[in-house]
Structures are given as C-alpha cells and as structure tokens.
Design a protein that fits this description.
single chain; 240 residues; alpha/beta; Rossmann fold; seven-stranded parallel beta sheet; 7 strands; binds acetoacetyl-coenzyme A; Sc_DH/Rdtase_CS
C-alpha cells in the first residue's frame, strides 16, 4: 500500500513542488492550504492531489483536518511541515502583530502539524518528519527578526524530535532552502532581491523542485539513518 504524506502549504510554491514530487514517487499525498481556494482547485485539477483547507496556526483546526485526512487516505507516514509566511520589517518598525503572525504560523504551526500525527507514528513504529526551515534561520536576515527566530526554532524542533522518535523508527529532519523563485521571494523588492542573487555563488535563485528532491530523499527508506539533520540547499549562499 502507498505511504501517505501530508504537506502543509502544499498547493503553492515549494510545497506544490513537494506534493508533486511525492506523488510522482508513489505516495498518497494530502496537500493543505489556508486561503486560496481557486489556486487549490486548479492544483487538484492539474495534479489529482487532494487538498484540505485549514490554518496551520490553529491547533484544533489542524487536529480535525489531520483526522479527516487519516479517515480518507489512511494513517500519515510522512509529514512535511512546509506552511510558512513572512511579515518582513526592520526590527524598529516590526509590530507585535507581525511578530505574532509569523510565530503562530511558522513555529506553532509546525507543532500543530506534527503533534497530532506523532502518536500514530509511535504506535506504528514508522514515521518521517520533515520541516522546511530556511537559510535565514541559520544566518539571520535584515528585516526578518520574526521569521529567522521561527526558522531557527524549527531546527530545534527537529533536533529534539529526532531524539524522541529514534526508538520508534521515526526520523525528523529539516531542509533549509536558500532563496527560491517563489511568490515569497518575488515579493521582496526587486533591488533587494537582485542584491541577494549577487550573494549566491551559483548565480541564480533556486527552483522549488530542487527543494522537493531533498524532501523526497529524507522521506525515503534510503534515509533511514539520517535523523536530526539539516540539508542546506542554498546555492552556496551560506555554508554551515
Ligand atoms: N543590510 C543592511 N542594511 C539594509 C539592508 C541589509 N540587508 N536592507 C536594507 N537596509 C537598509 C536600507 O538601505 C535603509 O538604509 P537608509 O535608511 O540608510 O536608507 C535601512 O536599512 C532601512 O530601510 P527602510 O526604512 O527603507 O526599510 P523598510 O521599512 O522599507 O524595510 C525591508 C526594508 C522590508 C526589510 C526590505 O529591506 C526587505 O524586504 N528586505 C529583504 C528581507 C528578506 O530577505 N526577506 C526574505 C523573504 S523570502 C524568504 O523569507 C524565504 C526564505 O526563507 C529565504
């Protein structure tokens, strides 16, 4: 039977590429989205991948959504916590609201996504937890105190879960994408973006598929001894 994979924020950007790659690799995929019904429908029409709508920042909604996915597709074997947002501003201009929104989605949202799936993985003695962090969680970024804090926190989550999950056949790993050509990066002011591209040794933005392939590796049986680790895929922009 096909393994079941849940990808939050799985209908757009990096998440879309991950959903498609996992489907191509033979997984039964559930992709979540928070708001854009039209885009989600277009995604399902194009890919045949089922979508589910809930806000990753909401624990009860995540729990109920995950129960629905498991009732329809079966127990979740692979969870990819990908949903994330930016609310960039220099710290002196950053509002408590901008701080809260980013923490609620990018950090608490990761807890909300993994926590309801975790007991089943422990019982079944198998699981793959993959969190999409960011280069900016590793190096920090001007204008992203909130985002960098959450993405660094996400690394703490996987390093801890790796230790708790090991006895139960569960691996937990992170992928830290650099700057990838998605809406999120295209929304950065052009001048700033051009300057950032100048800092990437390979001389270009990454492609969502280049991140999806990292996720597929971590999800596969091939990665059985890889846990608590971080794959950095950033074109050489930051060498850990
Ligand atoms: N380093 C040093 N100084 C910088 C700077 C930087 N990287 N960026 C801006 N500044 C300077 C500006 O030149 C300006 O200086 P002056 O006042 O002397 O002119 C000062 O900081 C403040 O600028 P502004 O008051 O104009 O700031 P703003 O309110 O317009 O906000 C910003 C600017 C929103 C932070 C903007 O610089 C920005 O969007 N930066 C990009 C942040 C970024 O990389 N976000 C990543 C999004 S993609 C993503 O997050 C995906 C991922 O995981 C990689």
């Amino acid at each position: 039977m096909a393994r079941v994979a849940l990808v939050t924020g799985g209908t757009r950007g990096i998440g879309e590429a991950i959903s498609k790659k996992l489907k191509a690799d033979g997984y039964e995929v559930a992709a979540t989205y928070a708001g854009n019904d039209e885009k989600a429908q277009a995604f399902t029409d194009a890919t045949g991948i089922k979508t589910y709508k809930w806000n990753a920042a909401d624990y009860e909604a995540s729990k109920a959504g995950i129960e629905k996915v498991e009732a329809e597709l079966g127990p979740i074997d692979v969870v990819v916590a990908n949903a994330g947002i930016t609310r960039d501003a220099p710290f002196h201009k950053m509002t408590p609201e901008q701080w809260r929104e980013v923490v609620d989605t990018n950090l608490t949202g990761v807890f909300n996504t993994i926590h309801p799936v975790w007991p089943g993985m422990r019982e079944r003695k198998f699981g793959r937890v993959i969190v999409i962090s960011s280069i900016n969680g590793q190096k920090g970024q001007f204008g992203q105190v909130n985002y960098a804090a959450t993405k660094a926190g996400d690394l703490g989550i996987v390093k801890s879960l790796a230790q708790e999950g090991a006895r139960f056949g569960i691996t937990a790993n992170a992928v830290c994408p650099g700057y990838i050509g998605t809406d999120m990066v295209m929304n950065v002011p052009e001048k700033v973006r051009e300057a950032i591209i100048g800092q990437i040794p390979v001389g270009r933005l990454g492609e969502p598929e280049e991140i999806a392939r990292c996720v597929a590796f971590l999800a596969a049986d091939d990665a059985s001894f890889v846990t608590g680790s971080t794959i950095s895929a950033n074109g050489g922009q930051f060498v850990v």
